[in-house]
Amino acid sequence: MLTIHAAPLVLPVGAAPVPDGAVVVDGNRIAAIGPYRELAADRPRARVRHWPGVLTPGLRQWHGTWLLKRCYHPDPRESGELGELPLSGTELEALELDAARWAGSVRRGLQRMLRHGTTALAVTLDDPVLRTAVARSGLTVVPSVGAPGILVGGPDLDPFVEGHDLAGSVHTPLAVGARADFAVFDATDEAALRTAGAGSCVATVLDGRLVYRAR
Question: Would you list the DSSP string of the chain?
Fold first, then answer.
């Protein structure tokens, strides 16, 4: 089934922005990119999802290994005691984590990456729990070649912290025939998106599937 994802602004990266644009998804592939009215007129039976803000390619998280192996992502039931942000360093060392709590942290870390528009991450899959969780998430694993290096200031789920701008933070540009990996953010343009950060994500599409939608 065809699905049209429409937004006030589509930023393909590497191509001109498309005001009142849309991305057509057929299965797990991008079938078309262009003005919403034109794409919808040619596909009257397609399902349509209207999103606020800007639609961009999915983001790349360089520090997947750090965030998943050297951080603990608290369960929401622990937020009163531990807060909601990833814990690392001495805070992590102070926790007594059994295998079940650690596995839960890995799964929550991956879910929180999806809530930040991440569709690809650099990660070392030398742990079976981590390997299984990443495979089930559907996130694309990419090599760390070209990574910025040491994460300054500690772990951050926002890929813009290391990528700085949109072009430096995306995995691959939106293109017809490419895998349908993209995200939508509650921002008016790229400048506003950089200010708001990836925490403004309202939807993430991974391999053609809507895997996160803000409530």
Answer: -EEEEEEEEE--SSS--EEEEEEEEETTEEEEEEEHHHHHHH-TTSEEEE-SSEEEEPEEETTHHHHHHS-B---GGGHHHH-SS-B-HHHHHTS---HHHHHHHHHHHHHHHHTTTEEEEE----SHHHHHHHHHHTPEEE--TT---S-TTS--S-THHHH-SHHHHBSS---TTSB--EEEES-SSHHHHHHH-GGGEEEEEETTEEEEE--
How many residues belong to the chain? 215
| Domains with residue ranges and CATH for the chain | 2-58+171-213 (2.30.40.10), 60-163 (no CATH)
For the record, the structure tokens of 145 come out as 């070649």
Give residue-wise pLDDT tens across range 41-82.
Answer: 999 999 999 999 999 999 999 888 888 888 888 878 877 777
pTM listed for this prediction: 0.90
